[in-house]
Amino acid sequence: MAGPRLRPVRARAGKDKRHQLMTARVHVIGAGLAGLSAALHLAASGHRVFLHEGARHAGGRCRSYHDSRLGCRIDNGNHLVLSGNRSTLRYLALAGAPDALEPAREAAFPFIDLATGERWTVRINDGPIAWWPFVPSRRPPGVSLAAMLRALAILRAGPGATIADAVNPRGAALTRFWEPMSLAVMNLPPHLASARLMAATALEAWRDGRLCRPMFAPQGLGPALVDPALARLQSLGAEVRFGAVLKALEHSGGRARALLFAGGERVELGPDDKVVLAIPPQRLNDILPEAQAPEEASSILNAHFRLADPSVARHAPRLIGLVNARTQWIFAKGEVLSLTISAAEHVEGTDSEHAELLARLWAETVRALALPQGLQPAAQRIVHERRATFRQTPEDVLRRPRALTSLANLVLAGDATDTGLPATIEGAIRSGETAARLIATPAGSGRSA
Ligand SMILES: Cc1cc2nc3c(=O)[nH]c(=O)nc-3n(C[C@H](O)[C@H](O)[C@H](O)COP(=O)(O)OP(=O)(O)OC[C@H]3O[C@@H](n4cnc5c(N)ncnc54)[C@H](O)[C@@H]3O)c2cc1C
Prior knowledge:
By secondary structure, the protein is of the alpha/beta class. Helix content is about 30%, strand content about 25%. It has helices at about 15-25, 35-45, 85-95, 145-150, 165, 170-185, 195-205, 220-235, 280-285, 350-370, 395, 425-440; strands spanning about 25-30, 50, 65, 70-75, 80, 100-105, 110-115, 120-125, 215, 240, 245-250, 255-260, 265-270, 275, 295-305, 320-325, 330-335, 335-340, 380-390, 410. The strands form five sheets. The chain has a seven-stranded mixed β-sheet with strand order 8-7-16-17-18-15-19, with helices on both faces. Strands 10-2-1-14-20 form a five-stranded parallel β-sheet. A three-stranded antiparallel β-sheet has the order 5-9-6, with no helix packed on it. Bound molecules: flavin-adenine dinucleotide (FAD). Flavin-adenine dinucleotide binds near residues 33, 55, 245 and 414. Flavin-adenine dinucleotide binds next to helix 2, strand 15, strand 19 and helix 12.
């Protein structure tokens, strides 16, 4: 079968270079944030882009959908994006939606310890010099200045060190600072999570309050991060295909030659055509065994509670961390309260276990948000993403594949590729930027990634 049906691409006449770009096709496989980012950057720079997505929708692990049990639209999981996530901001600007995410007024993270009832707010000051750890009211109670200063040790951590190896946190420093941070950023507890990756995030965002404001998606992740990119791709003439599952890749002579899709469809690649594979590690290893991407995964469980009367939670912070609780974070999203449990491998999947867990999580929510006693949610459900991120241990971080492959016309993207960042929205979007840059760079010009 010939290549996909080609929709005419609006050429900007008169520009030879641009015309040349328009004739070469770039096939991006996977319309998660990495693939969307690659496609957007390539289409915006004049490439003729075909985005092939196996599912019936874009967004991958970061999406919104109507949930029939809850009777409303939800995000598959809570996603914390920070104001210093510069690739995400560039992506949104390119998608024509620079204001799709709403920054909080300050870098403030409220917490409650359910064992003691204590409440506090970690407040990261604005500016290049981080003086907030020196102010007791800005750090968690019980965490000494010395313990906070020991955090700097992660900046010197070797590639084989976990956060616990590097910092050796104890007592309140462990339970009130490192555990919440490590679970939120790395989706692993400190004794398993790579210190190097945690340090990368600290350097990019956590060091300055201006870079560390939580960014909220008032209409949901899909409307903020996915829909504008799809609309922009369409306006740039890119072709987006859903239900297009890549099954195999033919290659010879150091180049990818053809893409084989489910249903027997075959897309021949011309001499100038290029490919970005932006699919998760397990699929990637099936299609390109040389990638040897880390396949072990950490899960994230989200519990969603719909309120009959959203005004009962009108005083709730948009985000609160919980300590000494099963719940780790609560996001208040109008009529829905969404709870996160990271590294949730231990949670089984039976209905009775879920019912028990939901009862406990709801009780914690009532306490944390000071909701009226006896209040019950109108509807509730658990969404357990078993493969939320790859397992970001030092060993598996070292196994992340680089963007460049042995095939001259094929590069990789995705949160599990070697971005230097944790497997996050920012990491996925950055990987798409890198892939687009490599695709746009003529072969043999000293590329590195
Ligand atoms: C519950 C949950 C909570 C999270 N919380 C946060 C958070 O707070 N902050 C944060 O920054 N990050 C968070 N993350 C991580 C973040 O969502 C991911 O890092 C990011 O979405 C990964 O994007 P990706 O494009 O690399 O991969 P994916 O989103 O997995 O996209 C890959 C796409 O490829 C498609 N595909 C797969 N195989 C094929 C094939 N053979 N052919 C065609 N298409 C294929 C898939 O359908 C998918 O759409 C969370 C993730 C989850 C699941």
